Amino acid sequence: MTKPVVEFQEGPAPTELVIKDLVVGEGKEAVPGGTVEVHYVGVEFDSGEEFDSSWKRGESITFPLRGLIQGWQDGIPGMKVGGRRQLTIPPELAYGAAGSGHHLSGKTLVFVIDLLNAG
After folding, report:
1. Residues in domain PPIase FKBP-type (predicted)?
2. pTM above 0.90?
3. What is the pLDDT of residues 59-104, one digit of tens each?
4. Distance (Å, whole) CA 96 – CA 112
5. How far is residue 91's CA from residue 70's CA, in Å, rounded to a whole number?
């Protein structure tokens, strides 16, 4: 797979998690609390500006879902290896309301995630 281009979304930011499968995988399914290996790119909903990308670092990343933001914990389970999913995550499921200390606080975030492995 190649690095995805995140489409700019028109209109107001959603207030709930929006899950959109771009490619449906056929491999093992990610489960709540499991460990996943992913490639991802994250952009700010309002500006479309990229703030993080495993593609930029040139390597995938593996981690337990329970250690991630709530939007990932809720949005990745059910995905199958080989799939590509877009998550649009409101602040409450990301880094909290504006002013809560993280530079992405108060922002709606959009991630495109490629699931490479699930355990």
Report:
1. 33-119
2. yes
3. 999 999 998 999 999 999 999 999 999 999 999 999 999 988 889 9
4. 20
5. 10
80/30 Cα distance (integer angstroms):
6
* Residue 97: exposure state from Cβ atoms within 10 A (0-12, 13-18, ≥19): exposed
Q: What Cα–Cα distance (Å) separates residue 107 from each residue in 3, 28, 34, 86, 87?
A: 23, 32, 26, 16, 14
Instruction: Quick: pLDDT tens for 3-28.
Output: 998 988 889 999 999 999 999 999 99
Domains, in order of start, for the chain: 18-118 (3.10.50.40)
